[in-house]
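REQUEST ID: PR-0412
SUBMITTED BY: lab tech R.K.
PRIORITY: routine
TASK: structure prediction, single protein chain
INPUT:
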Amino acid sequence: MENLIKNKQFKWLTHTFICALFWIVGFTLSDFIKTPVASFTDVVMVATHMTTILLASWTLITLLSTLPTIVFTILYAFITLLASILAFYRYTMGFSLNTMILDIVFQNDIAISADMVTWEVIVWVCFATLCGTLLALLRRLYTIDWHSKWTYFILVVSVCGLIIFLNPNGRFARPISERIPFNLYAVTKKHFEEKQEISKERPRCFKVATTSVDSLTVVVVIGEALRPQNMSINGYERSTTPNLERLGAISYDNVYSEYVYTNRSVPHILTRADSVNIQYAYTERSFIDVFKAAGYFTTFIANQDAEKSYVYFMNEADTCFRANTSKTVYNFEKWLDEDMLPYYISTINDNSPRQLILLHCIGSHWWYNSHYSDDYKIYTPVITSRILSNCDSMAMVNSYDNTVCYTDFFLSQIIEPLQNRNAVVIFLSDHGEALGENGKWLHASESEAMHSTAAFVWFSPLYAKQFPQFVEQAENNRNKKWRTDFLYHSVIDAGHITTDVMDTTLSIFR
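STATUS: complete
OUTPUT:
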């Protein structure tokens, strides 16, 4: 035992392990405080997740520790400083680092960012950084034996471990990269990838786009994982959509989504991409550009994190608002679509005669309990574990139906302010959701329920009076089979835009 303690490799690995443990206990733990834990299995899963991040941190620090002591100390202290900032806001405000927060940091006025700096932050960060610096300086107490084969064995294992843990295509990549401290690199990388994607030039796919209407508000709502089978407007036994029924929405319960996950579905439905020309989703502009060319003021309001596959379209709009500036999929606090309403109300009240407003909802995304307010916890019991195998099937359906009830409320708040305007609202969910059919749950795999997606249209009285034939045809087409390809052409048609890119056979108004 005495020889082991004196062993240089033992001292080296012990030091780097303690450095890694300091990060996990001091900072990474903040990412797990609000994680739902309802059983021993949940505890084991959280512990396994944290252990994986600990091992990834250990391998990284072991490699960094081969640098000169002063360089290692500076790097470790700097990462500790940044991680302590993230942990403070995670503990106190529930904030998680995402690209929207980086936009605020990099682009906003310094005074605005300075408002977030308090004496508590300064004390916490200084204390954490001091502890990290002193811990890193312990590197001076030992030397690495470069003549030992065990040293090179440790380095090879560390490199292999880091490759396994951080391989972008590996099973560990996302759970690790979304957590402190690894999200410092992952989110920054994603931020600059998005900026690069936005800066790309995509060609217009039309020659002309004009409109004869003087005043019109077109609202497009992109839902999340809303299946038509659980909407009472489509005959579901539970009253999940009373507001849509009261407001006279025309629902389409036979719509097929080409893709069953957001990153592929959203660019597909915003462009003229179809099952034959899927490449248009990544080479052409969206219908937002058509509306801009026709003289509409365009606004994109997002309640989901920007993804590389569709961030270009968000920035096509004249104005882009992001409501979820502190949320990621690993948040388990409330993440509600009503956070978009202040941006929406201010937009419709800005007196632009012709407007296109696009809202991207969090909707019925998993973890369901985060996406409805307490007032809409109507069906109980609800899920208490994030491990699907630990969830009762009825509780899963109850939690999901609560999100549908909340979405119905949210959509009524979108529609009500338009009652006295010339306006039309078109809703389409990006994909459906499996709720136990053939043993399948959620989405992003393959099942009929995942491809079956919700859609509806609502007309204001003024719009219905001015364009009665559109209302009539929308009613006539409600029972037809549609693919999500219809959205691009139907939205342009709803805006009464004359353009060479519209296919009237794909419009629900024809």
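NOTES: The chain has a mean pLDDT of 90.
REVIEWED BY: pending
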